[in-house]
Write a structure and sequence with these properties.
This protein is of the alpha+beta class. Helix content is 32%, strand content 32%. It is built from 1 helix and 8 strands. The longest helix is centred in the N-terminal third of the chain and has 54 residues.
């Protein structure tokens, strides 16, 4: 038996256990990395959508006529009691679809037709709020400050910007 070469049963079991530990560790690290990536991707998508909406507001506000900007609470209950920013014939607000807890940050290209809306951001659990402050006052402000905040997929967000009129 002294001339026989090969693995003993003990050596085989030890190598299987070590290989299993290495594979399980690599799988665990991969799962953690993928989870972290998906969380950051979700955050980035949220901020991209918010940024796009604020760019729309900025462009519309900077090119608006002097007295065409209003900030008010609309009569319709679908606007979740939030302020509604009207710039010329367009409007922005937080829309609440009927019988849901969902909240949408929306742009109305034509404020007279609330059914024709562009959804800029959807928050399924309803944790979305915004505030609009006019300087010195609406209508006819020289600047507006827009604040959007909430939580989407357990990720909190907060975006704030002040937009000044080009020719006040």
């Amino acid at each position: 038996m002294k001339n026989k070469s090969g693995f003993s049963l003990i050596e085989l079991l030890v190598s299987i256990i070590v290989a299993s530990i290495v594979i399980l560790t690599a799988g665990g690290l991969s799962k953690i990395s993928l989870s972290s990536y998906n969380k950051e991707l979700s955050k980035q998508e949220t901020y991209n959508d918010l940024s796009y909406g604020l760019k729309l507001i900025r462009n519309r506000f900077r090119n608006a006529e002097a007295g065409s900007v209003r900030n008010y609470i609309p009569a319709s209950g679908v606007w979740a009691g939030q302020t509604f920013l009207e710039i010329g014939n367009e409007a922005f607000g937080i829309y609440k679809p009927n019988n849901t807890s969902q909240r949408d940050f929306v742009h109305l290209p034509d404020k007279s037709n609330a059914n024709n809306r562009e959804v800029l951001l959807t928050v399924p659990d309803g944790d979305l709020a915004w505030a609009v402050t006019c300087d010195p006052s609406c209508p006819g402000p020289n600047a507006v400050t827009v604040v959007l905040s909430g939580t989407k997929k357990k990720n909190p967000f907060h975006l704030e910007t002040t937009i000044a009129r080009r020719n006040p």
